[in-house]
Design brief:
Number of helices of chain A: 11
Order of helices and strands of chain A: HHHHHHHHHHH
CATH class of chain B: Mainly Alpha
Shape of chain A: flat
Distance between the termini of chain B: 49 Å
Largest sheet of chain A: none
Oligomer: heterodimer
CATH class of chain A: Mainly Alpha
CATH topology of chain A: MetI-like fold
Radius of gyration of chain B: 21 Å
Strand content of chain A: under 5%
Order of helices and strands of chain B: HHHHHHHHHH
Helix content of chain A: over 70%
Helix content of chain B: over 70%
Radius of gyration of chain A: 22 Å
Number of strands of chain A: 0
Number of domains of chain A: 1
CATH architecture of chain A: Orthogonal Bundle
Largest interface: A-B, 41 and 39 residues
CATH superfamily of chain A: MetI-like
Strand content of chain B: under 5%
CATH architecture of chain B: Orthogonal Bundle
Structural class of chain A: mainly alpha
CATH superfamily of chain B: MetI-like
Number of strands of chain B: 0
């Protein structure tokens, strides 16, 4: 027990590979950033469908949210990586293959778009109808009302909620290692196979993610609270 | 349609076996997570000397991604503690570990939301602290945290897809095994994704229904 505890806490091996591992962590951040942009874009689109006047669009928006919010990230990423290129290939009559990075961004982006859609929708529905009517009575076009009156308020309202979702998205980026995107977890698995010493490596990986996520979430939470307080003051 | 029959319908026994394993892992993990989460929450709130340690433990459970947690439990715990001794045990331990951190915070929020006056009233009629917790605090906290608890169960089911990585033969594992026999992923992966989505949808719909019924019966304001 004490021997293995010593081994688990002796992180010199982990430190030895710091350059590779830092590169891996950077890949986590790239996947996160790209997937977050995609999720926000699609989420906003789905939210707008859900508040549309036409029932068909509302129904489509609800379907989107229910499918992607209830889909496990892993199966979605695997599906996008192995099935989607084949299906698209049938349509354009040629062989298609996705880079693992692209697949993981699409998979994670779509899953999280379901969550963001609900956050956006709650934000949109919380805006008093009078704001929109006031904009109309001044003769603003609908698009301008949305961009100048609705969206800025929605963004502020959804900040605290979306911080949690960004954190979950970042955590979910670890699963992209399973389709061979060279992130931190992938590097750790590879190094473990070479060194045959899983204890320090996996402990180091867990502690690294713990530190990064804890720091990021406390900073983001404090920032979003401060921004909200300033806006509503 | 022939492909669907060959790759999905004819494999239904393997898929069913996978679903059974998924349900087993999730059920065990959920039960343990509720117990451990409650324990962590109580220690954090009422056992002052242990509080800093428990806070670090809860934050560690909450802030590590589930895949990292799973591999950590699977590779490091056996050497460290001599347990878990099987992949199956490692799978539910990892799932339970992560959820217990979240549930501990859920329970704490629910307990802290109960007005202090109720506890004082109970003490003033001479109830012991244990009785106050058991009769006054816990029933209300359990009701108001019911939706979050069910939500946590859906998170467990979603995360359980990852236990296939440590070769636990769950639904995901079985479907990947079938993919690796024929190298025809379209039908089987689509069917698996659909099965998971329906399964998780049913769980969350059932949870919503249960917490609505509880709310109506006991007429307690939602928090």
């Amino acid at each position: 027990m004490s021997e293995s505890l010593h081994q688990a806490l002796d992180l010199s091996l982990f430190w030895e590979y710091r350059h590779v591992l830092l590169g891996g962590l950077a890949v986590n951040f790239y996947v996160f950033a790209a997937a977050a942009v995609l999720a926000l874009g699609i989420g906003l689109g789905a939210a707008l469908l859900r508040v549309n006047r036409l029932p068909v669009f509302r129904w489509l928006g609800t379907l989107h949210v229910e499918v992607f919010r209830n889909a496990p990230e892993y199966i979605m990423v695997v599906w996008v990586h192995f099935v989607l290129p084949l299906l698209l290939g049938y349509i354009i009559h040629s062989r298609l293959e996705f880079n693992p990075f692209v697949s993981s961004v699409i998979g994670l982006g779509f899953v999280y778009s379901g969550y963001f859609a609900e956050t956006f929708r709650a934000g949109i529905e919380a805006i008093p109808i009078a704001h929109i009517e006031a904009g109309r009575s001044l003769g603003m076009p609908e698009r301008l009302i949305f961009r100048r009156i609705v969206l800025p308020q929605v963004v502020r309202r959804m900040l605290p909620e979306s911080v949690n979702q960004f954190i979950s998205l970042f955590k979910a980026t670890t699963i992209v290692s399973l389709i061979a995107v060279p992130d931190l977890m992938y590097d750790v698995t590879m190094i473990t196979q070479q060194e045959m010493r899983p204890l320090p490596l996996y402990t180091g990986a867990a502690l690294t993610y713990f530190a990064v996520i804890l720091a990021a979430s406390s900073v983001l939470r404090a920032l979003s609270e401060r921004w909200r307080a300033r806006i509503y003051a | 349609m022939g492909n669907w029959q060959r790759l999905v319908w004819n494999q239904r026994d393997a898929l069913m076996a996978g679903i059974v394993v998924t349900v087993e892992v999730c059920a065990i993990a959920f039960a343990i997570a509720v117990l451990v989460g409650l324990l962590l929450c109580l220690v954090r709130m009422y056992v002052r000397p242990l509080r800093p340690i428990v806070i670090v433990v809860i934050e560690f459970f909450r802030a590590t991604p589930i895949l990292v947690q799973l591999l950590w439990v699977n590779y490091v715990w056996p050497a460290l503690f001599g347990w878990p001794d099987s992949f199956f045990a490692a799978a539910w331990v990892a799932l339970a570990v992560q959820s217990s951190g979240y549930l501990a915070e859920t329970f704490r929020g629910a307990i802290e939301a109960i007005p202090k006056g109720q506890r004082e009233a109970a003490y003033s009629v001479g109830m012991s602290p244990v009785l106050v917790f058991w009769r006054i605090v816990m029933p209300q906290a359990a009701l108001s945290s019911a939706p979050s608890i069910v939500n946590q169960f859906t998170v467990i089911v979603k995360s359980s897809t990852l236990v296939s990585v440590i070769t636990v033969p769950d639904l995901m594992f079985q479907s990947q095994k079938i993919v690796n026999i024929w190298y025809e992923p379209i039908e089987i992966l689509t069917a698996t994704a659909a099965l998971y989505i329906v399964l998780i949808f049913l769980v969350s719909a059932a949870g919503k229904h249960i917490s609505d019924v509880l709310r109506r019966r006991y007429a307690i304001a939602a928090t």
